[in-house]
């Protein structure tokens, strides 16, 4: 894309795809220009024509076909001139591998002279050394510019050859176009002027271009101004979308924090509110994507027209500019008349309202409200906006208005997005009062004394409610200490990149991920039989060679080696592809999960219900059955990882659960509750603090569990761009890498709960 105000060079026009037809992808032949300023081969346009009209393949604009056919479209003399220059540089006939002299056959036959060594830029002929010397010694051609043929073919004289290039009259071969007939707007040679245009006022081409250039430049400046308006509108749309996402994230956080301190009846209502929030954001994003697509489409059409006009004005000869002047002016005027800045759709920002009420399953304790974001009229970044009138009081399910705790609310600060939070003292089962800090106190199981002020009880409470987004299930051992704040690790989007490389014959199918060195990941692409290296920023670093015929499935990195499973074998190879050892695995299992131990000198692999651990020499170090021999045949660990604490975490498809066991195979935690949404547990990763990240592919989620396997809540959802997540890994203990089924990788930084 040519930026506004810049002029393309001749080298760019000759080396880019500007001279290629976008239909046949070959060099343009008989180039014809449509009214939308897109140029194609005449034969290609003839194939596209549908009766009396055709659609431009690039901008999809419908163009009427002249009655005489596509040949009546304007011939692009500008492109023709560039094509002549390209063809001359490419060379013509060859003699013993060298171009032939153009004058020798005229004097003494084809064998009368040697190979061409020079070129006359005025005559556009290749000359041998003898003819070149004679060319400089005649009265008619002594002023011609004769240059070295090798330098000409190398492009050293492109600018000079372009200046000496003249458009030829199609009516009188050998005559150059020299004049413009003003009444007819037609280019003329000397012969044309003596015939039907003898009495018409005519101007030399240079003078005619000087007279008409300011008009075209004014139209071009108008289109540039419209492009700037489109860009400003696009930025405003993206700002509104970013504001919506930021506000939605804040509201989601408020919903999470509020739900942590209320009773079990709030859990079901929390699910409903979060569902409303996600539905609103998804609908708003879909509408925003449509508007952004329309803006980009309009900008692309205008940008291409402006780039073409700028190329013609910068690189075109006088005759070429004048031949296209009418079409360019008509197109630029048409673009200026278009509505450039459509009115942005109103953006409804979600607002959280907490209302007082008894513990009644029919009472809405959490409700979303939406307020329209006012468009910003100045460039200030503070985003100061007043909300105007008061929001309508929310209604209960029976239609009555819910009373508020305070009848009058203080005016909102200018510039603040209002977050309404109305809290009431919730009745306690034991009669204890709500803490003064305004947070609802969790009832005690035994009816004892309340927890310290602003805190929560040390005793665990078993929640019997069922909630899709967040579930609480009792753990076999005490859960992590969240210090009563309700805060969990949160994702911060880092980057996203595709994994398909130019040499891939098929779409990637990522079956394994693992860290590889410093801030790198290793991707097992089973479909293309490759182990690909990427940086966390998405830069491709090459591939680790694998044995021929191997399709890597699961992969893990050790100290200076790579372990992976392929079929019924476990391989250990060096980064250069040298195989250290291979071990046969059970044939009754379709795939084998591989995990590196925290020490970096052992690798674990799941085999037919048990886990085998091998050292760097390939010897079996240990073997155990998760849960002991009593559970033999009842475990199927499809995904496996090791935590920094030395525990194993696996997805058991036989029991449809996530299982945590120590190095001896003793189960210390297992989760199979409703938080799995009836899905088979997917890929697992563990951060440096022991938090477990479990993938649920069917519902497009990654949920988080504590180190003992108790579900804590959602970590990633479709709101974060997840679409059929497949495999995850943790890099440096703080970057969660997620691969999708389409081969795309998302990277999220895990924000610790204390930060």
Automatic annotation (TrEMBL):
Q: Which domain of life is it from?
A: Eukaryota
Reactions catalysed, semicolon-separated, are:
S-ubiquitinyl-[E2 ubiquitin-conjugating enzyme]-L-cysteine + [acceptor protein]-L-lysine = [E2 ubiquitin-conjugating enzyme]-L-cysteine + N(6)-ubiquitinyl-[acceptor protein]-L-lysine
Database matches in Pfam families: zf-B_box (PF00643), zf-RING_UBOX (PF13445)
Q: Which GO molecular function terms does the record list?
A: ubiquitin protein ligase activity; zinc ion binding
| Domain B box-type, first and last residues per copy | 164-205
Question: Polar residues bias located where?
Answer: 393-410
Q: Which Gene3D superfamilies does this one have?
A: Classic Zinc Finger, TolB, C-terminal domain, Zinc/RING finger domain, C3HC4 (zinc finger)
Question: Which InterPro entries does the entry link to?
Answer: 6-blade_b-propeller_TolB-like, TRIM45/56/19-like, Znf-RING_euk, Znf_B-box, Znf_RING, Znf_RING/FYVE/PHD, Znf_RING_CS
Which chain positions lie within coiled-coil regions?
Answer: 227-305
Q: Which residues form the RING-type domain?
A: 21-60
Q: In which pathway does it act?
A: Protein modification; protein ubiquitination
Residue numbers spanned by region Disordered = 371-485
Taking the first listed entry, what is the main subcellular location of this protein, grouped into a coarse class? cytoplasm
Q: Where in the cell is it found?
A: Cytoplasm
Q: Which family does the UniProt entry place this protein in?
A: Belongs to the TRIM/RBCC family.
* Protein name per the record: E3 ubiquitin-protein ligase TRIM56
Origin organism of this chain?
A: Neophocaena asiaeorientalis asiaeorientalis (Yangtze finless porpoise)
What gene is it encoded by? TRIM56
């Amino acid at each position: 894309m040519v930026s506004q105000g810049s002029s393309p060079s001749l080298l760019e026009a000759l080396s880019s795809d500007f001279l290629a037809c976008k239909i046949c992808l070959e060099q343009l032949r008989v180039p014809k220009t449509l009214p939308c300023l897109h140029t194609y081969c005449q034969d290609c346009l003839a194939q596209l024509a549908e009766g009396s009209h055709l659609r431009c393949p690039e901008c999809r604009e419908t163009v009427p076909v002249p009655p005489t056919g596509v040949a009546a479209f304007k011939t692009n003399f500008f492109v023709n001139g560039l094509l002549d220059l390209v063809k001359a540089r490419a060379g013509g006939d060859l003699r013993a591998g060298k171009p032939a002299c153009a004058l020798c056959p005229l004097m003494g036959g084809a064998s009368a002279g040697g190979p061409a060594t020079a070129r006359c830029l005025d005559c556009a002929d290749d000359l041998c050394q003898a003819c070149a010397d004679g060319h400089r010694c005649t009265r008619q051609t002594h002023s011609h510019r004769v240059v070295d043929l090798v330098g000409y073919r190398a492009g050293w004289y492109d600018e000079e050859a372009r200046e000496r290039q003249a458009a030829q009259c199609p009516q009188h071969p050998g005559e150059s176009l020299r004049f413009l007939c003003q009444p007819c707007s037609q280019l003329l040679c000397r012969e044309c002027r003596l015939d039907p245009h003898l009495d018409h006022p005519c101007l030399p081409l240079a003078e005619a271009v000087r007279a008409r250039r300011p008009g075209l430049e004014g139209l071009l400046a108008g289109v540039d101004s419209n492009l700037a308006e489109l860009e400003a509108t696009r930025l405003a749309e993206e700002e509104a979308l970013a504001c919506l996402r930021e506000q939605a994230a804040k509201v989601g956080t408020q919903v999470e924090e509020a739900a942590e301190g209320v009773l079990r009846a709030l859990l079901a209502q929390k699910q409903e509110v979060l569902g409303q929030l996600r539905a609103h954001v998804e609908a708003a994003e879909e509408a925003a994507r449509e508007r952004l697509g329309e803006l980009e489409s309009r900008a692309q059409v205008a940008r291409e027209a402006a780039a073409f006009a700028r190329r013609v004005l910068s690189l075109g000869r006088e005759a070429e500019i004048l031949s296209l002047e009418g079409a360019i002016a008509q197109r630029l005027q048409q673009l200026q008349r278009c509505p450039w800045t459509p009115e942005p759709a109103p953006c409804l920002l979600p607002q959280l309202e907490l209302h007082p009420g008894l513990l009644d399953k029919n009472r809405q304790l959490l409700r979303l409200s939406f307020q329209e974001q006012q468009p910003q009229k100045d460039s200030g970044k503070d985003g100061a906006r007043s909300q105007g009138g008061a929001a309508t009081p929310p209604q209960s399910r029976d239609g009555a208005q819910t009373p508020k705790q305070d009848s009058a609310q203080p005016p909102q600060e200018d510039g603040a997005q209002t977050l309404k939070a109305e809290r009431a003292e919730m009745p306690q089962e034991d009669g204890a009062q709500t803490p003064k800090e305004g947070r609802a106190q969790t009832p005690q199981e035994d009816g004892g004394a309340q927890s310290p002020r602003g805190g929560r009880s040390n005793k665990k409470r078993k929640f019997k409610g069922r909630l899709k987004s967040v579930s609480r299930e009792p753990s076999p051992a005490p859960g992590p200490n969240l210090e009563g704040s309700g805060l969990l690790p949160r994702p911060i989007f880092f980057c996203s990149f595709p994994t398909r490389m130019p040499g891939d014959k098929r779409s990637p199918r990522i079956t394994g991920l693992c860290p590889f060195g410093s801030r790198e990941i290793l991707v097992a692409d089973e479909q293309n039989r490759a182990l690909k290296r990427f940086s966390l920023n998405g830069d491709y670093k090459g591939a680790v060679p694998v044995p021929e015929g191997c399709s890597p499935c699961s992969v893990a990195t050790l100290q200076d080696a790579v372990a992976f499973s392929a079929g019924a074998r476990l391989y250990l190879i060096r980064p250069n592809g040298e195989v250290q050892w291979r071990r046969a695995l059970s044939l009754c299992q379709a795939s084998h999960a591989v995990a590196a131990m925290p020490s970096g000198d052992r690798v674990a692999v799941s085999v037919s219900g048990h886990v085998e651990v091998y050292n760097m020499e390939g010897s079996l170090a240990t073997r155990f059955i998760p849960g002991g021999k009593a559970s033999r045949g009842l475990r199927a660990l499809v995904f496996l990882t090791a935590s920094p604490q030395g525990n194993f975490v696996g997805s058991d498809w036989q029991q449809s659960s996530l299982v945590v066991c120590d190095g001896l195979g003793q189960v210390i935690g297992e989760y199979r509750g409703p938080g799995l949404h009836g899905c088979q547990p997917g890929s697992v990763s563990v951060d440096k603090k022991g938090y477990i990240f479990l993938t649920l592919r069917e519902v497009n989620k990654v949920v988080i569990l504590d180190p003992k396997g108790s579900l804590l809540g959602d970590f990633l959802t479709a709101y974060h761009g997840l679409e059929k997540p497949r495999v995850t890994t943790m890099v440096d203990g703080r970057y969660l890498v997620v691969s999708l089924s389409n081969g795309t990788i998302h990277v999220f930084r895990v924000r610790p709960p204390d930060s």
